[in-house]
Amino acid sequence: MRTRRTVLLVLIMMISLAGCGGESVTTMNAPANLVGTSWLASVILDWDPVTDATSYNIYRSVVSGAVSSKTLLVSTLPATEYTDTAVSSGTTYYCQVIAVNSAGESQASNEIAVTPE
After folding, report:
1. Conformational region of residue 67, where left means phi above 0, alpha means psi within -120 to 50, and beta covers everything else
2. How far, in Å, CA of 56 to CA of 47, rounded?
3. Distance of CA 82 to the CA centre of its chain
4. Is residue 62 classed as helix, strand or coil in its secondary structure?
5. What global pTM score does this model have?
6. Fewest beta carbons less than 10 Å away: which of 20, 44, 50, 97?
C-alpha cells in the first residue's frame, strides 16, 4: 500500500512539473544589425526583426559599455525602428536593443555610437 502511494505521489509531481516548461524554453536571438542615423537633431535607430519577439527595449547612454550600464529609453516598442528626439547636438550616444517576448528578454544587440548634428 505504501509503495502505491509513493508511486502515485511521484506521478502527480511529474505531471505538475511537466507544465513548467523548463526544458522547452527557447532562447531568442539578439537583435542584429543595429544602425543609427543622425538626422535633424534626432537619432533614428533601425535593426533586423527577431523571430518570436513581441516587442523591443531600447537602451541609451553617453558612455560606452554593457547594456546594464545604460538607461532604459523605451520599453515594449512593437516596431524595429525608433526615432529619438530627446538628444543634444554634438553629444555621442551609445545605444543597444533587446528583444522581448513572454519568455523573457534576449541578449543585447551590438552597441552603436551616434552623434546627432
Report:
1. alpha
2. 10
3. 15
4. coil
5. 0.76
6. 20
